[in-house]
Structures are given as structure tokens and as C-alpha cells.
Design brief:
Number of helices: 17
Order of helices and strands: HEHEHEHEHHEHEHEHHHHHHHHH
Number of strands: 7
Structural class: alpha/beta
Number of domains: 2
Shape: globular
CATH superfamily of the largest domain: NAD(P)-binding Rossmann-like Domain
Helix content: 40-55%
Strand content: 5-15%
Low-confidence stretches: none
Oligomer: single chain
Largest sheet: 5 strands, mixed
CATH topology of the largest domain: Rossmann fold
């Protein structure tokens, strides 16, 4: 996704520095030599406006916008490194869509906590049904962009929007973050259904249950109910839960086929955000005293404490 966002912005005529948080230089070297990220986005020729950068200080020092597109668990550590290097007017954009597992804080809040005071209110977030390959191939994509700063929203829209990508603005950062974070949990459940050869009837019903559970949490945490049915909510849930190449959906499918947790994760080959998100969602629902049997079932599956087939069938039999 980081490479895809870089390509979208580069195709709009802007210079983009691309840095890899993993310390893995192979993708950066591939892009420099062949203009292709063969490891994570094979077959896509990348713009000359993208500059692979090994040094994070050189990557962010003069940037007007800095996009954080890393697994949510890395954001806290990364912002501590990046914050002292940012320009005095930089806009930080969260594209990680997650919850900090320990503090249960929203990722934009984690970013803000590491920034100097003058940059905190400028933080923005983008979230919605955006499969990286589809987006970079020029297929029409629409997402929400949220910020307390209208100027930040305009800046993000300016560099990202095109004839095939639209950003719909909202001030509801809580709703956008909650929905974007926890759609991965329910996408795992959609994968369980696929692995067990359950029909679309079943998956459609479960998507409704997922929306109700997410909506209850959004409301409790102070977000807007309408965000649940917007691009970051319903749109992203459907896009991720029903997409054949979705990491979280595939993970669920592998689990229901009998693979162990580590085997399923290895077969996916990338970070499966829904695993840690399921634990965070379980904790938040307990904190706010919300009944969420669907999310709790997925949490138990991702902990390995229940057998996927038995757990899902039991849940369906008790569905109210």
C-alpha cells in the first residue's frame, strides 16, 4: 500500500521519497534499478517521480506531507524517530488504520502524541475500500479523508485525487479510524466462511452483524453513526472481506482449512493486521461494556483457543 500511495501521488506530478520501515533494502533497490517493487507490487512500472530513500531523515526532512503506511504496531516507535526530523509545517497522514494494542489509542492520537504542538492539529487520516493493486492500476477508488484541519484535508486531496481516485472529506476521525481498523477482524471471518464453503447468504448476514457491532463501538467512543455506513466503514468492510487477495480474508480461509495460526500467517506472507486488531477490539468492547459475540468468536479463533468450524457453526446457531 505504501508503494501504491507513492505511485498515485507521483503520477499526479509530485516528487515522493519512499522509505521502508522494515529495514529491508531489497524493495528500495528494486525500485531504483528497475522501477518496480517486485517483492510487494510485482508487474507495476513505477513513476520516475518516486525516489527510494534509505535514510529516513533525508526522506522526510523537506516533505510537505508524510504518509505513515506501516503496520499499526510500528507507528508509536516510528513517530518517535520521525518527529524530530519533520519540517515545521509538515502534515502527517495516517494510512495505517489500526489501534495501539497496549494503550487502545487510535493511531492518529499515537502520531499526535509524538509530534510538536504546532503539528498535532494538522494530522489527517485516509481510509476506505482501497485494494493496493486496483488503486495503482487506475481502477476507480474512493476513500474517506478525515482531519480536524480543513487545510490538511485540502492538502491531501490535492496530491492524491485524480480522475480515478476521489477522497470524501469528514471531520469524524474517531469513526474513520474505528471502522478502518476493525474491518480486518471481520474480514478474517469472511475468510473462515470461504474456507468452509459457506454461501453468500451466510456472508451477507454476517456482514450486517459486523456493521452493528462496529457501529455500537463507534457510538460509544464518540464517533458518528453515519461513518459506519460510509466508505471507511461499509465500503472497506465489503472491499476487504470479499476480496480474493485480501490478506485478512486469506488468513481466515487458511485457518478454516486446518492450518495452524503460524502456518496460515506464513502462507499469507505479509502482516495480518486483523490478528492484533481482534485482541484490541475484544478489549475495547470489554472496556465499553458492549456485547459483541461475533468479534469475540473471531478473537478466540485468532488466539487458537477454539476450532474455526465449530466456533463459527456455534455462533450461527445462536445468532439473534
Amino acid at each position: 500500500m505504501g508503494t501504491s500511495i507513492a505511485e498515485v501521488i507521483a503520477e499526479n506530478g509530485y516528487k515522493v521519497n519512499l522509505w521502508n520501515h522494515e529495514g529491508d533494502l531489497e524493495p528500495l533497490e528494486q525500485i531504483a534499478k528497475t522501477r518496480e517493487n517486485a517483492k510487494y507490487l510485482p508487474g507495476i512500472k513505477l513513476s520516475e517521480n518516486i525516489k527510494p530513500e534509505r535514510d529516513i531523515s533525508a526522506a522526510v526532512a523537506k516533505a510537505d506531507l508524510v504518509f505513515f503506511v506501516v503496520p499499526s504496531g510500528f507507528v508509536g516507535g516510528l513517530i518517535k524517530i520521525a518527529a524530530p526530523l519533520l519540517s515545521k509545517s509538515a502534515i502527517c497522514v495516517d494510512a495505517s488504520k489500526g489501534i495501539d494494542e497496549k494503550s487502545l489509542g487510535l493511531i492518529p492520537d499515537i502520531i499526535k502524541s509524538g509530534l510538536p504542538a504546532n503539528l498535532r492539529n494538522k494530522v489527517a487520516t485516509i481510509s476506505g475500500p482501497a485494494i493496493a493493486r486496483d488503486m495503482v492500476m487506475g481502477e476507480f477508488t474512493a476513500m474517506n479523508v478525515a482531519s480536524k484541519s480543513p487545510q490538511s484535508i485540502l492538502a491531501v486531496k490535492k496530491v492524491m485525487e485524480s480522475g480515478h481516485l476521489r477522497l470524501i472529506a469528514t471531520s469524524d476521525m474517531i469513526g474513520v479510524e474505528i471502522t478502518g481498523s476493525f474491518k480486518n477482524v471481520y474480514a478474517i471471518a469472511m475468510g473462515l466462511c470461504d474456507g468452509l464453503k459457506m454461501p453468500m447468504n451466510t456472508k451477507a448476514a454476517l456482514l450486517v452483524v459486523a456493521l452493528k457491532e462496529i457501529g455500537a463501538l463507534v457510538k460509544k467512543m464518540g464517533g458518528k453513526t453515519e461513518t459506519v455506513y460510509d466508505l471507511a466503514g461499509l465500503g472497506d468492510l465489503v472491499g476487504t472481506g470479499l476480496c480474493a487477495i485480501s490478506r485478512n480474508r486469506r488468513f481466515g480461509e487458511f485457518l478454516s482449512q486446518g492450518l495452524a495460526l503460524d502456518e496460515a500467517a506464513a502462507k499469507v506472507g505479509q502482516v495480518v493486521e486483523g490478528v492484533k486488531a481482534s485482541k484490541a477490539l475484544y478489549s475495547l468492547n470489554k472496556k465499553y461494556k458492549i456485547k459483541s459475540p461475533f468479534a469475540e468468536m473471531v478473537y478466540k479463533v485468532t488466539c487458537g483457543s477454539v476450532v474455526p468450524k465449530e466456533a463459527l457453526n456455534k455462533f450461527l446457531k445462536n445468532l439473534k
